Amino acid sequence: MTKQIDLEADIQRLLAEHDRIAEQGVTVHQRENVLILGGEVESAQRRDEICRQIAARYPDLEIACDIGITRTQAPAEVEEIS
Amino acid sequence: MIRIAAVGDVHVDKDVVGRYRPALEELPDQADALLIAGDLTRHGTVEEAECFATEFGGLAVPVVVVLGNHDHQSDQQEGLTKVLTDAGITVLEGDATVLELNGHRLGIAGTKGFGGGFNGACASNFGEREMKDFVGTSERYAAALRAALRSVEECDALVALTHYAPVPETLAGEPPEIFAFLGCYQLGQAIDEAPTTLALHGHAHHGSERGRTPGGVPVRNVAHPVIKQAYNVYQLLTDTVDTRDTALANA
Ligand SMILES: [Fe+2]
Ligand SMILES: [Fe+2]
Questions:
Q1: Are residues B5 and B231 in contact, defined by beta-carbon separation less than 8 angstroms?
Q2: Do A72 and B20 touch (CB under 8 A)?
Q3: How far apart are CA B63 and CA B72, in angstroms?
């Protein structure tokens, strides 16, 4: 079994370097045998692909996917810069 | 008064086309220009650039962008830049543009920037060739930003647009161990050496929104996961008189 600290590095590299993912903004935490994924991505397809790839690489780990899709509504406020 | 909309890290590919469009259609009511702080695409391919141009092109306000590290992934920066330019989007790298908005001149100087770190935790231009190449790259991008900011001759407001961060404050929320990959203090120095009104950057998806350079210039991290909406709007030159008439504005 991979050491916990290496596991996170391994997953971060998988997410960044995998051709179909290229994400650097996903967080990875391990709690007992559950891998908790967080952060936000631009589409539901990307979130699902991330979970699919990690599940395929670590079939023994349970994955909890808390990755959100960043909202794209127009802003309601203006910030004055001074 | 000028209102600028800004966002970064939109990472467009086929699956994102259409998501921003409803908010972008509202842009003319919200702002006078749109600035995008890099990571326009996922892998920096020409196909993804075409998706970006579909989503962010043909707007009723000028669009000015810099590239990010993702836009360099496929080594197709030139092809990507051409697609954007053909779609009417201004791409800055070590240069500047001036927009005439409401009778005011808004100067925008841009570069991608690079990592290198900040006070107390930065790389030095010393030792192995690889290390000197790394820090040399930080310095080259900072020099490009400095020259771009200084090239703007007359303007009422001056914005520095980068992908990498010029200060560590807007990285708060990211692991401190990776700050050196998220920005460098040399960008902040370049910003402070010019009469910069506002500095915008992206790249730090888990960072925070607000900071200031050591010289007091407001810095905003507009990475999409940080601002959590299609774009933020910043108001500059609040107490100035506008000239709505374009003929007068250009006189
Ligand atoms: Fe990004
Ligand atoms: Fe980035």
A1: yes
A2: yes
A3: 20
Q: Which long-range contacts (CB under 8 A, 24 or more apart) does B15-18 make?
A: B15/A42, B15/A43, B15/A45, B15/A46, B16/A42, B16/A43, B16/B51, B16/B55, B17/B51, B17/B54, B17/B55, B18/B55
Residue B9 gets the label, from left (phi > 0), alpha (psi -120 to 50) or beta, of left
Contact, A54 vs A34, CB < 8 A? no
Q: Which residue of A45, A74, A77 is in closest CB contact with B230? A: A74
Give the distance from residue A13's alpha carbon to the nearest chain B alpha carbon, in angstroms. Answer: 14
B157 bridge partner residues: B106
Domain count, chain B: 1
Q: Any idea what the CATH number is for the domain that residue A37 is in?
A: 3.30.70.1350
Interface ipTM: 0.91
B239 and A CB contact within 8 Å: no
Query: How close A55 comes to chain B (CA, Å)?
Result: 22
The verdict on residue A51 lying in a domain is yes
B249 has a pLDDT exceeding 50: no
d(CA B60, CA A3): 53
Q: How far is the centre of ligand 1, averaged over its atoms, from the C-alpha of B38 (Å)?
A: 7
**Integer Cα distance of B185 and A56 in angstroms:** 41
The pLDDT tens digits for A39-69 are 999 999 999 999 999 999 999 889 999 999 9
Residue-range definition of the domain harbouring residue A35: 4-69
pLDDT digits (tens, 9 = 90+) for B58-70: 999 999 999 999 9
Q: Structurally, how many domains does chain A consist of?
A: 1
Distance CA B13, CA B49 (A): 8
pLDDT digits (tens, 9 = 90+) for B168-208: 999 999 999 999 999 999 999 999 999 999 999 999 999 99
User: How much is the pTM?
Assistant: 0.94
Say if residues B23 and A73 touch (Cβ distance below 8 Å). yes
User: What whole-number distance in Å separates Cα of residue B94 and Cα of residue B111?
Assistant: 5
Element (H, E) at A53: helix A44-57
Q: Is residue A78 a part of any domain in this protein?
A: no
Q: Which of A25, A43, A82 sits opposite B15 (nearest CB)?
A: A43
